[in-house]
Amino acid sequence: MTSKEPKPKALDVEGQMNGEVTATGVGDLYLGKSKGEERKFVKKATDATVHIVRCQGYKSWLTIWDSKGEKLLKQEVSHALNLTTSLPENAMVWTFIHGGVTRLWSFKFWKVEEMKSCVRKMRVGMWERERKEEFKELKEEDQRAVDGGDMEMEEDYDTDDEEDVEEVYQLGRQFAANYTKDRRPMESKVKEKNSFLEVGMATDRAFVIRGSQIGVFSGGKAKDDVSFLTKIDKVRDSEGSLFSPEKVFLHDKDTKMILLPPGDRQKAFVMDLNRGEVCEEWQGPEDFQIGDLTSGFKFGSITGEHLVAGVNSNTVFRMDPRISKKSKLADSKVYKTNYRFGCLTTNEHGNLAVGSEKGEIRLYSEANKIAKCAFPGLGDKIKGVDTTADGKWVLATCKNYLLLYNVLAQKGHTGFQKRLLKDEKPRPLKLHILPEDMARFGITTVDFTIARFSVGENEEQMICTSTGNFLIVWSFKAIKQNAAKARFSYRIKTLKEMVVGEKFHFNSNKMVVSTQEDVMMQCMDAAKSKPRRRRTDYT
Q1: What is the rounded CA–CA span in Å between residue 378 and residue 146?
Q2: ∠ CA(225), CA(228), CA(229), 5° rounding?
Q3: What integer pLDDT is reported at residue 26 of this predicted model?
Q4: pLDDT the model gives residue 156
Q5: Of 111, 415, 451, 531, which is least surrounded by CB within 10 A?
Q6: pLDDT surpassing 60 at residue 315
Q7: Residues 6+ apart with CB under 8 A from 352
Q8: What residues form DSSP beta bridges with 455?
Q9: Residue 12 class from Cβ within 10 Å (0-12 exposed, 13-18 middle, 19+ buried)?
């Protein structure tokens, strides 16, 4: 179909919205409904015009106008759109949430180049919205990672290989925790809720934070249930003050637990799990802030490694509890610029991946050296990071999506060990919930928990996360085989309550799941499946 003159013209739209039209396309607007793997779109306007408008305050808008130049839709460009594309249809699909209802919209472009231009400018708008910075200031290779550059747009499947099979993981049997009569679940006068989950690697223990209490559970790794064992009541620091840990992780072959208090902190506390009491406190030099801490090596809680790694807003560091001085700081890299570091993880070699509130990800060979690689992300705050044990893949969690990076260079080294060349810098694979699944499951808000790989002596097989009361698992094995198809080959399970954390047992296809009120064990069953093909009908 031959494209007609856009209505209204870009100049008129710029005047109305006091902004700059960065991309324009002509086509047809559809409203969609989703049922199972089928989605049906009904035409609402023909010969319509899309204008992507960049306005003040680093905001961009998706605007759609009818053939007479009347505005049909105006929606702020953000990652909450859950934007996807379909090259066979020359269409983009997104969600519009209003009044607690998720609607599915699609725009079929008459020219594929106009679709690509609009989608790229929307990606730029998403990045600028969160970063509050000019996209043009980014390095050229980083710009390509954000807007896609000249690379072909991703597809969720290809008709040429839709008969191929891939290994996915079904969310199978689920077992609630057992509470015996003589062991009461955690209770308090003030109704607290579960807030954090930690699962052992050296043992089958799981620990759930609930206010100033820690619930201890066993099982789930070698058997098909988890059982409540006991609770550690009234968590207190070394001075006897009651506090509610914000984050915990296991240490020294799962015999100790590192507790991070909430808010600005200059200390971390070490709990002896055999006694259920804080036995040490760790801190740095005077006024040294501790933003986040983790084990110095991915399997450090199994091997008994003493080092822990950490960040604050402008520092990457390691602590060693064996240092006899009051300050346990072993080494560090301090930046004059405040990069707003917020989270980190380590691989089996002790290399570090650091995420920032600005959405950037940096890879370090050691804590006291400059980063080997830095990736711009897509603009949103990095909530958490994980790596495969060998350091070849890095997983970052943002509010509305996950980012998966393959950081293996052509010569066999990783981005942790040496710098990547410009043409080796990876474009992140964006993992998110499809717009039709948002509508199908009635999801109105996405806020992913920190996503993690399955963990064990063999290669990682799965990626797990959750949002609200929905548990979500991707097949990492399938993604490595064909990312374009498998990025949408996730499985969703609806739970009765909001999930606060989920984590795999070591060397197991089972994960422990904590909701706000309960704990359960979830089995993952490997299955062969054809790639998920979306059946789309435009009428």
Answers
A1: 6
A2: 120
A3: 97
A4: 39
A5: 111
A6: yes
A7: 309, 316, 344, 345, 346, 363, 364, 366, 367, 416
A8: none
A9: middle
The first and second tokens of residue 375, run together, are 């990736």
Question: 399 and 447 in contact (C-beta within 8 Å)?
Answer: yes
Residues in the chain: 539
- The tens digit of pLDDT for each residue in 479-532 reads 998 887 788 889 999 999 999 999 999 999 899 999 999 999 998 877 655 544
Give the N- to C-terminal CA distance of the chain in Å, as an integer. 16
Does residue 177 carry a pLDDT above 80? no
88 — pLDDT class (breaks 50, 70, 90): confident
d(CA 373, CA 375): 7
pLDDT the model gives residue 539: 78
Question: What are the residues facing 4 on neighbouring strands?
Answer: none
Q: Are 500 and 515 in contact (CB under 8 A)?
A: yes
Q: Closest by alpha carbon to 262, among 301, 235, 286?
A: 235
Q: Could you say which DSSP state residue 445 is in?
A: -
Nearest alpha-carbon partner for 489 in 533, 441, 455, 446: 533
Structure-block tokens of residue 521: 């064990």
* Tens digit of each residue's pLDDT (9 = 90 or more) over 357-382: 999 999 999 999 999 999 999 999 99
Helices 140-147/112-131 angle, 10° precision: 110
82 conformational bin, left if phi > 0, alpha if psi -120 to 50, beta if neither: left
Beta strands in 478-534 (DSSP E): 491-494, 499-504, 510-515, 519-529
- The H or E element containing residue 131 is helix 112-131
Tell me the C-alpha distance between 53 and 51, whole Å. Answer: 6
- What's the pLDDT tens digit per position in 441-451? 999 999 999 99
- Alpha-carbon gap, residue 201 to 220, rounded angstroms: 12
Judging by beta carbons within 10 Å of its beta carbon (0-12, 13-18, 19+), is residue 424 exposed, middle or buried? Answer: middle
Q: How is residue 420 written in tokens?
A: 């990547």
What's the CA gap between 158 and 88, in Å, rounded? 10
User: Nearest 5°: CA angle at 76, between 73 and 77?
Assistant: 115
- Compute CA distances 375 → 154, 354, 491, whole Å: 20, 10, 28
Side-by-side strand order, sheet with 462-467: 452-453, 462-467, 470-475, 491-494
pLDDT number for residue 525: 78
Listed ranges 2-6, 220-224, 250-254, 419-423; the one with the highest mean pLDDT: 250-254
What is the reported pLDDT for 181? 46
Give the mean pLDDT of the chain. Answer: 90
CA distance 182 to 423: 62
